[in-house]
Amino acid sequence: MSTKYSIRFYKDQEVRAIWDEKDSKWWFSAVDIVWIISESKNPKNYWKVLKNRLSKEWNELVTNCNQLKLTASDGKKYLTDVLDSDWIILLAKNFPNNNAKDFLDRFLYSENSIDWQSRKKAYALFENNLIQGKDIWTVKALKQIHAYLFWWLYDFAWKIRQKNISKWWFRFATAEFLDETLHNIEIMPENTFDEIINKYIEMNIAHPFLEGNWRTTRIRLDLILKKRLKKCVDWSNINKYDYLNAMIESVSNSTTIKKLINEALTDKINDRNVFMKWIDYSYYYEEEWK
Prior knowledge:
- This protein is α+β, with helices and mostly antiparallel strands.
- The protein has two domains: 5-110; 114-284, Fic-like fold.
- It is built from 13 helices and nine strands.
- A hairpin with a 2-residue loop joins β1 and β2.
- α7 packs across α10.
């Protein structure tokens, strides 16, 4: 069985994670967490000094510190000190500041959130090779993806919205004519990169569900790119704020979003780690836009 890697985010900073199949839990990079909590400019050295001090104190945090291989900035995997949730709480006690408390409140308990529950469903789309087929751009397929991601989480999962919604300054497609709008999008061509992205943009403007539209359409975008062009998007190569601004701009000008997506295309369509990483980034886009 292949190893499960993940990326968590806290205030736009990455925390690398790896799944322990034996004990059914996640391990997180100690250096990444120290970097966030301490705000040190040299987190590796900071962790080294702290680890040495704790070791001299016979601190159980250090004696139980595990090492697993995580991907570094150079793309290679190295043995890295990792901590589980319990050890992260012990680590945070060495930083009696508001930053440590906020980190624990927002990071450790996120697995109970709707976003995290639906993210696990998104992982399963790859694990089980679900939602495949020639009709991936149909409204039926879109509803299937939404239902799979949000079933038991939202009572409106897979249901086309019956009321008007808006975000920021923009009002999405009128609910009264949404069925007609979705039909027109469904029959749009999808053979070239430009056609596929045009269809993606129009579906964003339609926003057929009350919640979860971007997560659903990004998954479907990758499925159709995989089917038509033998490509998918490495979302980790697209900055969150560049993406959000480009999507807003795409209502009147699609140039920027097409450029961002085109430059992030990869042919690693069957690479599990690429898929897991882009799911993590895709959900990260949904966090509060500050």
